[in-house]
Design a protein that fits this description.
Blueprint: E1 2-6, E2 16-20, E3 30-40, H1 42-48, E4 65-70, E5 82-86, E6 95-99, E7 103-105, H2 112-116, H3 119-132, E8 140-143, H4 149-160, E9 164-169, H5 172-180, E10 185-188, H6 194-201, E11 204-209, H7 215-222, E12 223-231, H8 244-250, E13 253-256, H9 264-277, H10 279-283, E14 291-296, H11 300-309, E15 315-319
Parallel strand pairs: 8-9, 8-11, 9-10, 11-12, 12-13, 14-15
Antiparallel strand pairs: 1-2, 3-4, 3-6, 3-15, 4-5, 5-7
Length: about 325
């Protein structure tokens, strides 16, 4: 089969190339998906550069979410069923083995390309916003990078579950995108002091942050009493200085997580929760995938370069539908 591999040190998107690889053999409880589309995410870039190694037992290749057709029947699913799934690596390939418990149906009304942009994004946001962050209806969430896949999904999920949403973004175009996603307040972080704006709005009960660095102290300043700061990434520095008095004064909770290192059982639990609580919202049109770019899988390098440039609004997927046999 064809798959995307990495040459050299992986520091440049052009280090990605198309290779001939052996088709994976499904293990116990797994099933093979014939990939039609694969989502591209920032962890893929980190892995390419050598900064996000696969956890033990994971497939070594790039790619954390796919859509496609089941190669065989498994309990609850028929052969040829259209599915999307969170995978533990190897999604940038014509076929990928996945834990059958991590399968999700393609939501009614969505294309396979749109479905491929969902699993990693939605499971990450749901786990951190709704579970770790404990967001409740009537509360306010602040999310940074409102133009990103995580940001756009946080805006939509927060609104769908009855919260107010504040989003930051850089530049007029990205701010306009965050407003279209439904954010109640959008702050241009290049021009404005977001702390003052958030406080004037009433503060934040939950902050979902993908930036880190000097945003950390400002995020704490934005939190209301008993607020929750949830770290899901660090576009800036991962090491920060913490004044413990701020935590104590506000009775704040600091937490965060990564999705990929979680156990297969935990991912199965999350998948079931998302299917029950979020999939109906997608099918009702309250949450929708924001697919900004579809690239032939042979252009994986351009997809990585596009994402690294930081000018995106939404997500990018690789198209395997015209992959040659071999």
């Amino acid at each position: 089969m064809k798959a995307i591999a990495i040459r050299g040190d992986g520091q440049n998107p052009d280090d990605l190339y198309v290779a001939d690889c052996a088709e994976p053999v499904p293990g116990s409880g797994q099933v093979l998906i014939r990939t039609r589309f694969a989502g591209v995410n920032r962890p893929d870039i980190l892995q390419r550069r050598g900064h996000y190694p696969p956890p033990p037992g994971a497939a070594p290749g790039l790619g954390l979410e796919v859509s496609g057709l089941l190669a065989s029947a498994v309990p609850g699913w028929s052969a040829g069923a259209e599915v999307c799934a969170l995978v533990n690596g190897g999604g940038y390939a014509e076929s990928v083995a996945v834990d059958a418990r991590h399968l999700l149906p393609v939501p009614r009304g969505l294309s396979l390309a749109e479905a491929a942009s969902l699993p990693e994004n939605i499971l990450t946001v749901y786990a951190n916003l709704m579970e770790a962050g404990g967001l409740q209806a009537g509360e306010t969430v602040l999310v940074h990078g409102g133009n990103s896949g995580i940001g756009a999904m946080t805006i939509q999920m927060g609104k769908a579950f009855g919260a107010q949403v504040i989003a930051t973004a850089r530049g007029a175009e990205k701010c306009a995108f965050a407003r279209r996603m439904g954010a109640d307040l959008v702050i241009d972080s290049e021009l404005d002091d977001y702390v003052t704006a958030v406080k004037d709005f009433g503060g934040a009960d939950v902050v979902l942050d993908i930036v880190g660095g000097d945003f950390f102290a400002r995020n704490l300043a934005c939190l209301n009493m008993k607020g929750r700061l949830v770290q899901v990434g660090f576009g800036k520095a991962s090491t920060v200085e913490l004044d413990l008095r701020r935590i104590m004064q506000k009775q704040a909770i600091l937490t965060g997580s990564m999705l990929r290192p979680r156990s297969a059982d935990e991912k199965a639990r999350l998948t079931a929760c998302v299917r029950q609580r979020v999939w109906p919202l997608i099918e009702a049109g309250q949450i929708r995938p924001i697919l900004a770019l579809t690239v032939p899988f042979t252009g994986a390098a351009s997809a990585h370069a596009w994402l690294e440039a930081g000018d995106h609004c939404g997500k990018v997927v690789l198209d395997f539908t015209d992959a040659p046999a071999g």
